[in-house]
Amino acid sequence: MTEQNPNYGRIRSFTRRGSRLGAKYDGVMNEHGSTYVIDYPEGLSQTTIAEDSHIDLTEAFGRAGPLVVEIGPGSGEQTVAAALARPEWNFLAIEAWAPGVARCVNAAVRAGVRNVRIMEVDAAQALPIIFREGKNANSRAVELWTFFPDPWRKARHHKRRLINDEFATTAAQVLEVGGTWRMATDWADYAWQMRDVVQNSSQFRNPFSQKNHDPADQGQYQGGFAHRWQGRVMTRFERRGIEAGRKIYDIEAIRVSG
Fold first, then answer.
1. Which of 150, 196, 214, 217 is catalytic?
2. I want to staple 195 with a disulfide (CB 3.0 to 4.6 A). Which of 4, 59, 224, 250 is the partner?
3. Which SS3 state, helix, strand or coil, does residue 179 take?
4. Are 87 and 110 in contact (CB under 8 A)?
5. Catalytic site includes residue 186
6. CA distance 165 to 149
7. Which of 10-14, 59-63, 198-202, 254-258 is the least confident region?
């Protein structure tokens, strides 16, 4: 069993998984990593968290406040923009790629925001542990964001996509009742899958159900796509999709009781 680390809120080694960040990002992490990066007792494999871990987010942020969780923040454009707009909120970015973590830290430092924290961990494995039920449970998030996740374009790789029926249960565990799960993708078949996942979950309600139909839709349902959320900034992922001629889809889900 992984031994508990009493200093889980402070990172031990910013390149502990052997990643080479380069001089620029090594310097950023060495100087600012302890402010922004939440460390954790490691699990059995890379970027996993020990099953018996407890991550106290109130302690990690140094305060309580409305919480937003973003999975796959890229270079941190969305997280940092939102943190600047809502300084009274806390923003937790989940990123499994070490250079991505470094870029998020760099973006937060450059913007001067202090209400951002990052964890270098696999979201599907870690979130059920971070937000488990019980006396040590963290307060649930008001919003969960999964913007432009890896589409795993080949049909044989679709099983690797993050958003599926099983992950919907994890998303519900992260969110408070009434909280919002926001998704976006530029891959049509993934958008249909996201919409179907929401429609099939008893823990979510789609406020756009049967609205905004896609004529090409080959999913289980029809419609159910949201308008572009005004709080979502234009990142390089969305820009690439637009430049490639792909349609951008937004999906919104409201956490309900049950």
1. 150
2. 224
3. strand
4. no
5. no
6. 16
7. 10-14
